[in-house]
Specification:
Length: 602
Amino acid sequence: MLVVFALILLALTLFATEWLPIDVTAILVMVLLILLEPWTRITAQEGIAGFASPATITVLAMLILSTGINRTGIVQMLGSKMAAFAGTDRRKQLAATVGITGPVSGFINNTPVVAILVPVITDLAHNGKTSPSKLLIPLSFASMLGGTLTVVGTSTNILASDIAAQLGAESPGLGLHAFGMFEFTKLGVVVFAVGALYLMTVGVRLLPERVPAEEDLVEEYALQEFLADVVVSPNSTLAGKTVEEAFQDDTFDVDVLQLIRHGEQFDEPLARKEIQEGDTLRLRTNRDTLERLMDAEGLTFLGGPQADDDLKSSEEEPVLVEVVIPSGSFLVGETLASSTFRQRYSANVLAFRTRGDVIRDRFEDIRIRVGDTFLVQAPPDSLSRLVQNEDFIVAHEFDDVTYRKEKIPHAVGIVGGVVALPALGVLPIVASALAGVVAMILTGVLKPNELYSSVEWNVIFLLAGVIPLGTALQQTGAAAVLGDTVATTATVLPAIGVLWVFYIATGLLTSVISNNASVVLMIPVAASAAQSIGASAFAFVLAVTFAASTAFMTPVGYQTNLFVYGPGGYRFSDFLRVGAPLQLLLSVVTVLGIAFFWGVRP
């Protein structure tokens, strides 16, 4: 047990600090469990069992099905309807954001739903003269609330269902089983309704306006002091050199954004463009570097652009956008210097927002994490490729993206069948989800080569890696010891009070580590505690599941929070200010709801 506790402590530390990517941490824990088999009691076969777990396979299939829905453009169509309905009325904007996101997230994995809707909501806000900061946290929170409506709403529910089924098979006295598709929907509806009401009344007043309603990315990122126009003097050493040759020296942290010659603007690619006497160069650099550069290279300072309107191409198409890095992106763990981002997309990164901090220079060697946001200038054709690439979330909608709208009936029918078959007891969820994947290929909703890019492999490896940790908790008796320890609170609290303690503990844990990891750790402990005090194990498992699915208090508690962190211009404290009261409110609502619908005693 001490060895398992030590591994849990190691896992919690690595999850919280992000010293390693969370999926790598999960695999590391899995390997250590196998290597320490004499103490952990996890054989090699049990260690890799997470890869064959019904939860892992179901999540994999649901991610593919979600991509199929995305390819049809149906969510974007709903977003357009939402924008038309909301107009410039802030209440309607918020109501539409919550009202569309929540129900959709109940049937499509909520993480891709938010990834799709970030640009929709951002544009809706700007067009409606509203700060995106007022709508993006509600977007993320509504997706989490909607994820509690069905088993397939979030990977957390699917994993919790699988763990409950395993515990029920090992200890029939617990009375646990896999969740039915709509088994807790009635509680989910209550939680969603209360959460939506909070966001519409209290939450909207607590939300700051970090991003201006008028879209001006130069002002938002405070780039005025970092953009400058310079003229190449007759005696400049740069004349005759290409842009790449002139600025390849790492001594100067400079990006050339535009070259202007005789009134004609040249954007990317500029690397092989030869600089001539009299050219005007638009640079991104700080003032100290600019002064040293002008002295060294013979440049004359003209001034600097004051708004992002000055950074548009001659075709008047936007070339300045925010790009969010989602989980699974090839950039995660890389730096701008080590990645091929600039070369692949002929793009200049003007600023770098990470965990709420905006960095405007010397960001080449910063390790990129999920949720980091770039302010990017790139040609229109490169932006189109960025939009269509699932390695990025571009926080602006583009009209030239093509969708398979003719496949909407097929996609909706397939997802309906995937949900209905388990609900009617015809097939288990894992079988219906896999059948849905095959159906999407056969009907042309998805192409075969899109299957593998549809899967967030870091999520799959995370699930596969942490599942054996839950098994070790059980087999070494560590879960029973922890459960008995928490059960001692029953001497001063009634069973419903102990249930509330588990909800709060899971919520706090999920705020600093992965929601899936917290479910794996907490469900065995909760079931043991329930057994110790003679309470319903199902009630305790459900409380843990709901608490892990609604991690509102920190941006790192849930992936969707990270997706809105940068585009909303939020600070870490914004999530705590808006999310903590909601978490506390839902802790009471959920616990009372469980007691009302199922009872706390068996």
